[in-house]
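Thread title: Can someone regenerate the structure for this chain?

I was given the following input by a collaborator and told the matching structure tokens would be attached. They weren't. Posting the sequence so someone can regenerate them.
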Amino acid sequence: MDRSFRKTAIGLLLATSFLAGSFVAPRPAQAFGIDVAPIVAAITTLQSAMNSVITTTKTVLNSTLGLIDDKLTTAAQQISNNLKAQVGAQEQIADASNMVQARLARDVRNAQIADLHSVNRQDCLNLEDGQAQVVAARQAADVALALDVAKDKRTRADKGTPSWAGIGQGAQANNTHHLSKYCDDAEADAGLCSLADDTMKGADQDATSLFAPPVYTDQNAIDRANDFETTLIQPVAPAAQRGSAITSSEGQQAMPGRRSYNAAISLAHMIGHEVLSMRAGTTTLTTAQKAEAQREGITVTNTGSSFEATELEINRKYSGTDWQADLQAMSSDKSVLIQIAMLDAQRNWLLWQQYKLQQMTALATAKRLAIEAEHTLGRTGALPVPSPN
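Best answer:
Regenerated them for you:
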């Protein structure tokens, strides 16, 4: 109880002292013995002005900073928008570039596909020339076959041929035919015949009659070549084996040798006819082949031979400017490969023709060996017949 009263008394005393001090304190104007009111007023005015300046400055700064902030925000947004637009533009540029590249690649591929499926001019010419060569070769084979049949009858001395009546008649028939077409100076001076012109004189003995012309253009050219082949292989056939010549024992023994002779001469004629028939007019030359013949200075004709068509085709591709120009202008590997394939096919065809001829010449060589063996056997004499023990 005493402690609470004390606390209350102390509080009242402090409050009374504070109030008393407030009422009895000196006024500001006389605080330092001078009148300080003007000073306080000046300070108050200055403080008010400074506050106003500070406030204004703060307002201006806040406004400026706000404006700068707005501008910076706008600039940042613009930069962001520009970056976005730039990215979009780059994407559009990339898309456009990709589109152009895709179209270019498509066009290139389309061109390649077109090249792969389109036919080159030389492809058509190669096919046309190849067909002409094959037709010529087939028809030349028919010519050779016809000559083989006729010459084989003459070789065997069949009925109706000159040697059927004897070898003398066969020789006379050969002389008569020679003098009627190929009379030379000596024969004409002897009064045996009338001198033939330069193209026919002695032509049945000239190898140029067979080999020189790329094609036999008329009947005289064909006759010259055929008669040269006859003069070379068998000018006169032996007399026919008939009657007692084949019924007697001697005749019977001679018959196998005569058959072997006939077979050898038939093979020899076949080889000659194979060469001859390749120069017979058996096909129609193509436009490209005619152009090549004109470039080479050869007489241009519609009808050509297997030999001429093949030679012109080879020369056209070896020295012809048209084929070279077309080859250089080919835009794809496919066209060049086709030309290589066609050349390879042509080479194979030529090798095949050569192979067929080599077969015949190989057989002819075999016959020559057989003849030599027979002559050797004849020179050594017949062996004695062994007697039984």
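Confidence is low (pLDDT under 50) at residues 380-389.
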